[in-house]
């Protein structure tokens, strides 16, 4: 994949904005707030960095990728709504779990699709893409739904083993 000169500057701007968000804005907001919902500027700058990076890497396919991410979010929300929870309050769980897992799955799939899912036959490529997307959605959704603080628990497990 070749990046032209204009897109190279957008990619550099995206990386700079990402680093500024993580190294400057996040620590400032973290020192002022105890709640993750108060990190407004961090979320805005991370989102803008993601959009700039996507535009610089995808070029003319940027709108198709955004539509795919929207589809992924809606599909994940519907899967969470119908498959994970069976009570009246499942809408709240579907919103707070389905939307982020759909966005994470869509972004992971876009990276995997560009780099690894290459095949000359269209029907084989479509089956590979569909199975890869569904497997990624399942893994990410299970991590979001049942994982809890799995990094902390895994590190505690490793401490107990040593």
Can you describe this structure in just a few lines?
The protein is mainly α and 162 residues long.
Main traits of this protein?
162 residues; mainly alpha; globular
How would you sum up this structure, described in words?
The chain has one domain. Helix content is 82%, strand content 0%. The chain is built from six helices and no strands. Helix 3 (62-84) crosses helix 4 (90-115). The termini are far apart.
Average pLDDT level: 80
What level of helicity do the residues show?
A: over 70%
Q: What gyration radius follows from the Cα positions, in whole Å?
A: 19 Å
- Please report the distance between the alpha carbons of the first and last residues: 45 Å
Number of domains: 1
Largest sheet: none
List the helices and strands and how they pair.
Layout (H helix, E strand, L loop, with lengths): L4 H28 L7 H19 L3 H23 L5 H26 L6 H25 L3 H12 L1
Helix pairs in contact: 1-2, 3-4, 4-5
